[in-house]
Design a protein that fits this description.
- Helices cover 22% and strands 31% of the residues.
- The strands form 3 sheets. The protein has a 7-stranded mixed beta sheet, with helices on both faces.
- The radius of gyration is 19 Å and the shape is globular.
- The mean pLDDT is 94.
- By secondary structure, it is α/β, with parallel strands linked by helices.
- The structure holds flavin-adenine dinucleotide (FAD) and FE2/S2 (inorganic) cluster (FES).
- The site of flavin-adenine dinucleotide has 21 residues, from strand 4, strand 5 and helix 2.
């Protein structure tokens, strides 16, 4: 590797926050403009390392679909600790550092001509949205597209306007559920796995993409297995503590796998024998 490439891997480049929206009590949406190149060149499921100068650097998934003609991209950040709090305190026109995009991706080519089942739990919709939006721009290349999305309560749903728009597309069906309803909620109540048994699934021709909290994967996969979905057709994204993002520090390691480089998107077939993975 050339010295120059090395520098790009480890040195954040400057980018400008051009839009911030409060989405829920804990989540903010950020639109970011690159200042040092013309496009991010990412694929769905990949992440960037974002630096709040003077505070620290964290991995965050890219939520917008790939667009080689744009120098902007979108993130959604949940406030949980030091760096995410500092990001929430920033204002439009503030400068952040970014490295990446890094990691593996949901490869749309593999999914073409198939039935697609997207399963998002909570903030898991953020990386899946990048893939969903890419697929929906050419939805006729896929057969039936089903999107299942669960949140703890109705006020935690993200991108509700987009979910409504997606549901209007002819071969797309969106189903949402909440763990705990609030007054006025008329939709499904129950964890996300309650949405799976009623689905009519062509098990050999359905590919699944799942992103959600770790506790969700085990139960979702059990439910998909009982529907005879092949494990080689299930893709999911793992979250681990990351420092370097590029396979050097070992912080994200699960046995021989580096989640930052071999993942975060994995085929379930590759993970199912690793006890620590799910
Ligand atoms: C590939 C990848 C993509 C991610 N995408 C997003 C995203 O799109 N939006 C978003 O809001 N967050 C995302 N995260 C999580 C985000 O990186 C962490 O919330 C962040 O690093 C927390 O930093 P902090 O300094 O604010 O909190 P800290 O003070 O470091 O931690 C606060 C709390 O969060 C827990 N925590 C921190 N990092 C992780 C992690 N990686 N996995 C599980 N628990 C963690 C800690 O154990 C602690 O309880 C992603 C993580 C990874 C690995
Ligand atoms: S984060 Fe450093 S090796 Fe993965």
């Amino acid at each position: 590797m050339k010295q120059e490439d090395n520098k790009n891997l480890y040195t954040p480049e400057k980018a400008k926050i051009i839009e911030i929206k409060q989405m829920t009590e804990l989540e903010k949406f950020f639109r970011i403009k690159l200042l040092e190149r013309n496009t991010l060149g990412h694929k769905p499921g990949q992440f960037i390392m974002i630096t709040v100068y003077g505070v620290g650097e964290i991995p965050i998934s890219i939520s917008s679909p790939p667009d080689i003609n744009s120098d902007e991209f979108e993130l959604v950040v949940r406030k949980v600790g030091n760096v995410t709090q500092a990001l929430h305190n920033l204002r439009e026109n503030d400068i952040v550092g970014i490295r990446g995009p890094f990691g593996t991706n949901f490869c749309a080519e593999n999914f073409k001509g198939k039935d697609l089942l997207f399963i998002a739990g909570g903030i898991g919709l953020v990386p899946l949205r990048s893939f969903i939006k890419q697929v929906l721009t050419e939805h006729n290349n896929y057969r039936k597209i089903t999107i299942l999305y669960g949140a703890k309560s109705p006020k935690e749903f993200l991108f509700t306007n987009e979910l409504e728009e997606w549901n209007k597309i002819e071969n797309v069906e969106v189903k949402i559920t909440v763990d705990k309803p609030e007054d006025g909620w008329k939709g499904n109540v129950g964890v996300i796995t309650t949405l799976i048994p009623p689905l009519e699934i062509d098990s050999e021709n359905t590919l699944v993409a799942i992103v959600g909290p770790p506790v969700m994967y085990k139960f979702v996969i059990l439910s998909l297995t009982s529907k005879n979905i092949l494990h080689k057709n299930i893709y999911l994204s793992l979250e681990r503590r990351m420092k370097c993002g590029v396979g050097k520090c070992g912080n994200c390691q699960i046995q021989h796998l580096y989640v930052c480089q071999d993942g975060p998107v994995f085929c379930y077939e590759e993970l199912k024998h690793l006890k620590e993975a799910i």
